[in-house]
Amino acid sequence: MKYFHFKRPIHTICLYGFALFATFMFSACSVFPKQITLKKSQARDFTIEDKAFTLNVTATAYTSRHGETDSTPFLAAWNNRLHPSVKSIAVSRDLLDMGLTNGTKVTIDGLSGTYKVLDKMNKRWKKKIDIYMGENVSKARRWGKRKVTIHWTKKSIEPLKDKKKKCYVYKH
């Protein structure tokens, strides 16, 4: 770990600057909501809330057959092991920026239960999900290609707008 040494004995760090830095850093991380740790003095200056999202996508189905995958049919792109008993989906890469990252729980209109994002698709696909059907090829063919609506939540951290700029002075 590197330690930064400053030339001046008094350093002023503004929470407003921290808020901009935190917003930038947390938006760049793929699974940031579960990793946020704020001190009590900082937590009162931010709101952390779940935001609900809805999107219409094209849904197809895939299985763990050797013809549809590479030499490791039960290993997903994020190194998750796929099991036929686990409801999981693969998402197109443009949906990653919308918060559908590894481990996100998704509900799909017309299907019961909650599906977990465990795989990602090739870059050529846009606004598309692939529903994992284990090794059941006939079930995947019956599903075919459909337009569906998916729902998920994503945590967001926002600085409070009504708080005045707070500065903390740290002595070296």
Record keyword descriptors for this entry.
172 residues; alpha+beta; Barwin-like endoglucanases; six-stranded mixed beta barrel; two-stranded antiparallel ribbon; 35% strand; disordered N terminus
- Biggest β-sheet: count, sense, barrel? 6 strands, mixed, barrel
Radius of gyration equals: 21 Å
CATH class of the largest domain: Mainly Beta
Overall pLDDT metric: 76
Name the beta content range: 35-45%
Helix content: 10-25%
SSE run? EHHEEEEEHEE
Number of domains: 2
Q: Low-confidence runs (pLDDT<50, min 5 residues)?
A: 1-20, 22-34
Shape: elongated
Number of helices: 3
Examine the coordinates and then state which fold CATH places here, giving the name of the CATH topology of the largest domain: Barwin-like endoglucanases
Structural class call reads alpha+beta
- Quantity of strands, as a count: 8
What is the terminal separation in angstroms? 18 Å
CATH homologous superfamily of the largest domain?
RlpA-like domain
Query: Taking strands numbered 1, 2, ... along the chain, how are they ordered across the largest sheet?
Result: 2-6-3-5-4-7
CATH architecture designation of the largest domain: Beta Barrel
Structural commentary:
The chain folds into 2 domains: 10-49 and 156-171, no CATH class; 53-153, Beta Barrel (Barwin-like endoglucanases), CATH 2.40.40. Helices cover 15% and strands 35% of the residues. Mean pLDDT is 76; it is low at 1-20 and 22-34. β4 (105-108) and β5 form a beta hairpin. It is elongated and about 55 Å long. The strands form 2 sheets. A 6-stranded mixed beta barrel has the order 2-6-3-5-4-7. The protein has 172 residues and is of the alpha+beta class. The two termini are 18 Å apart.
